[in-house]
Design brief:
Blueprint: H1 9-17, H2 24-37, H3 47-60, E1 64-68, H4 74-82, E2 88-93, H5 96-109, E3 115-119, H6 122-127, E4 135-140, H7 147-155, E5 158-167, H8 183-196, E6 201-206, E7 212-217
Parallel strand pairs: 1-2, 1-4, 2-3, 4-5
Antiparallel strand pairs: 5-7, 6-7
Helix pairs in contact: 3-4, 4-5
């Protein structure tokens, strides 16, 4: 049996503090998101998740990145900074108000020219993309009921060796509570089971933030 260390609050704080620290602009965006959105600020990804996304984009050499769900732009900023010269990020969201904040910070960071923001239902945006392979890396963090549909639309356009990262797959532990039959929880459970059985990808679920699944498309 493999050995592991359960993560308690203190150990999680230690883990989170031992990474490349956020710069002042990222901290400013976090603070403004809390100030402007109140309780909805929980929709912003954890700082360590932003660091991870940047590392993954850089390590995979991704040039064509897609984000499903941008909120105030933190995750897109982290990924756009990691893109090589000529790389592009397609950001899909439905909120003009939240993404107005994102646009300001992308401009401050000097990455606005790398990001194309499309406002509207993400499924429509994805289905409007070319049918041929056109994605290298994708991050999904939007309405949970459509997670499986997003996954399928993306996978058919993902290059072999391309990577999908999906947020909130642990759903604050609700995936283990069978009494929770809410739409979002049921949708996340269904996605998790689907990917675990999907032989088109090699996948792993990691305990960063609220759980992230990484699925690499096989050739």
């Amino acid at each position: 049996m493999s050995q592991y260390t359960p993560i308690d609050v203190a150990l999680h704080a230690y883990l989170s503090s031992h990474r490349t620290p956020d710069d002042p602009l990222l901290r400013e965006l976090q603070a403004e998101t809390r100030r402007l959105t109140g309780e909805r600020a929980v929709m912003q990804i954890a700082p360590e998740e932003g660091t991870l996304l940047g590392v993954l984009v850089a390590a995979t050499g991704a040039r064509r990145v897609v984000e499903v769900g941008s909120f105030t732009g933190y995750s897109a900023l982290c990924m756009a900074r990691a893109l090589p010269s000529g790389g592009r990020l397609l950001a899909c969201d439905v909120s003009e108000a939240y993404t107005a904040v994102a646009r300001r910070y992308w401009a401050k960071a000097g990455v606005a020219d790398r990001i194309e923001l499309v406002l509207g239902p993400a499924l429509e945006t994805l289905r409007a993309q070319p049918d041929e392979i056109c994605f290298d890396f994708v991050f999904i963090d939007a309405d949970k009921a459509n997670y499986l549909a997003y996954y399928e639309e993306i996978l058919r356009r993902l290059r072999p060796g391309g990577l999908i990262a999906i947020d909130n797959v642990l759903w604050s532990g609700q995936v283990l509570r069978e009494s929770d039959q809410s739409e979002d929880t049921v949708a996340i459970r269904a996605l998790n089971e689907h990917i675990a059985a999907d032989r088109r990808v090699r996948s792993v679920m990691i305990g960063v933030a609220d759980g992230i699944t990484l699925a690499c498309k096989l050739g």
